[in-house]
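In response to reviewer comment 3 from the previous cycle, which asked for concrete evidence that the modeling workflow produces usable outputs, we include below a single protein chain processed end to end. The sequence was submitted unchanged, and the resulting structure tokens are shown without manual editing.
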Amino acid sequence: MSYSAARALFLALLAASVFLNLVFLSPAGASPVPLEISRSAQLVRQLTVNNTVRERLQTVPEQPRAGDVIEHTISVLNLDKKAHKAVSVIGEVPVGTVYLEGSAICNVDATIRYAAGSDFRDPPLGVAADKYTAVQFIATQIRGGHRFEAKYRVVVK
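The workflow returned the following structure tokens.
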């Protein structure tokens, strides 16, 4: 699948996510947890201003170029009044891209795991980061009314 096709699929899934807006996650036997999840992808451009390198995020073009860096963001808002623990989200590494090693970050205490196939494991996986197929973020806790934001970057092949 080309990057353009993968991008079209990603945008369709994004639209479905925005349309549905609420996702309910729950451990076995527990009540549903109301979470609002959104996803976005932006092109990362570096600019030099007064000898200082700065980044600017832009809309991803229809045909990104080899070497372009794309930042994926997954945002989870806890709509509940109480805190929820071990909230997990997964970001796929799109076909036609490779994971940018060390780029996974989040704004809350979380465990970050990677898959190079179907199983998620803690690093090191024993394979190069360019073989990663997905990134998993497991937030230790999301307080009521607060947002968990996870980001990672990929490079277009």
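The radius of gyration is 16 Å. We consider this sufficient to address the reviewer's concern, and the full set will be provided in the supplementary archive.
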